[in-house]
Each structure stands twice: as structure tokens, then as C-alpha cells.
């Protein structure tokens, strides 16, 4: 598929007003997306577990205008209050997707959104937020054109979400989503995420992700600045190749249920992401001392307990602790006994692998 496949032909229906609402989850990358080209095209393929508890709920009430406006007409409410400072980001998003949703300037949109997780938890809401919004807009398009197939609906929702935030394209469905062209993965695309199409062993069903909130402060580096650091980065080419190789390795890991190899790939990806930030110009250290304390505790505990608990990181200090369902009891006890002390205000979020966004 190409971009032009997402430009609709004339709409059949005339819809005056309506309300749509979606709840969309966050996701946690196993192979990381870090580095992008023009138009939100990733420099390398990535793969993630869709999450369940960390989610954004977005409702859009839409009303047809007397005549098409020159600009977008919308208001944004966040957690029950008008939120002017989110509007520029939404305007940029609407500009990027206008070509694919030609109805946008014909409606006034009242967008109301809220997160299941605390706003200043250091958890990025862009994946859940942009995917929820993309789904709401697709739902409006489906009312204008009821012939739209389910397959195109899902692909286009992911395509639009990507234009809002790259990783958001991995939040439409679950439970494992791959995004970005990877030669060895049939159907993979730079334009949208696809459900991981190969066999997955039961070991990876119901996987858990406990998110330890080490630092709830504002992000030190915005994702746009971060991705741009991969331009002219001395290790960029090797890194992008490594992501392809790690996806190849994951294929047999998922098939065999090989938790030991899984851990090696996932932890190496997390540390490589941070290594890229430490070796770019300008350079950043986004881990905090407690991030390292937690990592060392996990390694120690894993060795001692012979469990398969491991960690991954996003572009921040929080630690995602990943473990299989059958080790839940022992790992949860370990988290409470030994890791929670390293969290800001002892805060953490128990999440698990999920199956994608839901219409409410
Ligand atoms: C480190 O999707 O937030 O979480 O496309 O600029 O919105 P933009 O970036 P974003 O980047 C996420 C980077 C990451 C890794 C990942 O989720 O793959």
C-alpha cells in the first residue's frame, strides 16, 4: 500500500452531528523505534507489546458547519478542563492528516480526553492519545462512508496515528505489533503497524509489565529532538541494522518460547537506545541513579531466583519490568520488597499485555 491508498473518494453520507468515543492503550517497544525520516517514516522497524491499563479515552462530539471553514475548528478538554496548551500539537496533527480526512474543515470538533495514568508520571501519553484520536476520526469517516472495510479502517487508523506520533501506530491492535519495513516480515510497512503475523508461544501470552515511576518530571528531551539526534549519529547505520537483526532473532524466540534469548534482546535494545542518547551530539543521560539501582536488583534477583524477569526503558528514567504470567506471584513480591523503594513516592503501575483499542 502507498499513502494515496488512504485518500478517500467522495463521501456518500451527509452527517450533521454525532459523538464518537474510543479508549486506546499505550504500548511498550521490545525493539525500539529511534530515528525517523520525513513524514514520520521510521529509520528501522520496531515491535511492541500493546498494554492494557495505561490508556487514553477520547470522545469527539462533531457538528457540521454551515460551510467549510478556512481553518480547523475545535476545542480541547483534558480531564474535564479546557486545555489551550495542547491545541498547537493537535493543530499540527490535523494539518498532517487533512489530506487523508477531507471532512476535517467541515466540522466543529469538541475533543475531550483523559488518561488512566497520572499526567505527570513520566509516562508518554502520545501513543495512547494519538491512537485514540485517530480512531475517533476514523469512526466519523466510517459514518460518512459506511462501505469502508474493517481492514482499511484499522490500517488507516494506524496510519493516521503514526502521523501524530510514530509509536502510536502500534496502539490500535494487540497483542504484539510490528511497524516498519522488515524484509523477513510479510506485510510489514513503514506506513502502519501490523499484528505480528507469526507463531507466538504461550510463554508470551499474558506477559506482565510493571512500570516503576522513578522520575515523574517533565521529559528532558522531546521525542522529536530525540529522533533528530540520529541524523549524523556516528553509530546510526549499525544501530538500524541491529534492529533488523533483532527482529529476525525474535522470530524464533517467539516461536520457541525462548525466554532467555528474549531477555537478551529486550535488555540490549533498552540499553542501546540509551547508548544512542549518550553518544549523540548533544548528548543526554536519561537514566537516574535509581534506574541503575533497579536494573542491578533485577539482574541479581534473576540470577538467584531463576525467573525470567527483565527490564526495558523508554526515553526516560522509568523502568518497565517484564515477566511471564506463571512467575507473577514471585516477581510481584520481589517488586514490592526490593524495587518500590526506588520509585518516586513509591509509585508504580501494574500493567500487562493487551489487545488494543476499544470503541466505547
Ligand atoms: C523511545 O513515538 O514518541 O518510545 O514519532 O516523534 O512522536 P514521535 O516519537 P515517539 O517515539 C517513541 C520512542 C521510544 C521507542 C518506541 O516506542 O519504539
- The tally of strands reads 14
Biggest sheet architecture = 8 strands, mixed
Q: Helix/strand-derived class?
A: alpha+beta
List ligands, each type once: ligand DP6
Count of helix runs: 8
Strand content bin: 15-25%
The shape, in one word, is globular
Question: Distance between the terminal alpha carbons, to the nearest Å?
Answer: 29 Å
Q: Which bin fits the share of residues in helices?
A: 25-40%
- Average pLDDT works out at 96
Task: Show the helix and strand layout.
Elements lengths: L16 E15 L4 E2 L3 E2 L3 E19 L8 E6 L2 E2 L4 H11 L9 E9 L10 H19 L5 H15 L11 E4 L13 E3 L12 E5 L10 H6 L7 H21 L2 H20 L10 H17 L4 E4 L5 E5 L4 H12 L8 E5 L5 E2 L1
Parallel strand pairs: 5-7
Antiparallel strand pairs: 1-4, 1-14, 2-3, 4-7, 4-8, 5-6, 8-9, 10-12, 10-13, 11-12
Helix pairs in contact: 2-3, 5-6
The site of ligand DP6 has 17 residues, from α4.
